[in-house]
From TrEMBL:
Its main location: cytoplasm. Keywords: Cytoplasm. It comes from Candidatus Methylobacter favarea. Belongs to the universal stress protein A family. SUPFAM superfamilies: Adenine nucleotide alpha hydrolases-like. It is found in: Cytoplasm. Residues 4-143 form the UspA domain. The gene is uspA. This is Universal stress protein. Homodimer. PANTHER family: STRESS RESPONSE PROTEIN NHAX (PTHR46268), UNIVERSAL STRESS PROTEIN A-RELATED (PTHR46268:SF23). Signal peptide: none annotated.
Length: 147
């Protein structure tokens, strides 16, 4: 079995995210692998059943959120000693973007939390579940406490 060469940490900046980050860092150190971090800024809702029409996409708000996300990512990158070019931000659906970025960057291990924002009541959150089903490489789901 070959050692992992490129590990991707999927960071949602939610509670217990440090445990996921610490596990990814530990694995990268053990395997002497490159570590990249990806945060996906989820698309803002475009429709609202209450209005029955499309809500205009707010570019200003997205740009502000992107700025805030980049700041959080830079701090995490600094803590984990991950260089800027390996701190990635994408816009879209987390599970799809995590898998796409992993494939494009020849990642051989993805590290996610068992649940985060979307999966508090679930054994496995929807992102972790979606990544596990779609990924073409290994996936580690770090078990996180429910509270
Ligand atoms: P969830 O499906 O929201 O319960 O999240 C499970 C795990 O998926 C989290 O612990 C993260 O590792 C990853 N994840 C969820 N949302 C994002 C996101 N927006 N960007 C990057 N990773 C994410």
């Amino acid at each position: 079995m070959e050692n992992y060469k490129h590990i991707l940490l999927a960071a949602d900046f939610f509670s217990h995210g440090e445990a996921v980050a610490a596990r990814a860092k530990d694995l990268a150190d053990k395997y002497q692998a490159k570590l990249s971090i990806l945060h996906v800024l989820e698309s803002l809702p475009l429709t609202d059943p209450a209005y029955g029409s499309v809500v205009p996409y707010d570019m200003d708000l997205t740009a502000e959120m992107m700025k805030a996300a980049k700041k959080r990512l830079a701090k995490l990158g600094e803590d984990l000693k991950v260089p800027e070019q390996s701190q990635l931000i994408e816009l879209g659906s987390p599970k799809l973007e995590i898998v796409r970025i992993a494939q494009e960057n020849k990642v051989d291990l993805i590290v996610v939390g068992s649940h985060g924002r979307h999966g508090l009541a679930l054994l496995l959150g929807s992102t972790a579940n979606g990544v596990l089903h779609r990924a073409t490489c290994d996936v580690v789901a770090v078990r996180l406490p429910e509270s």
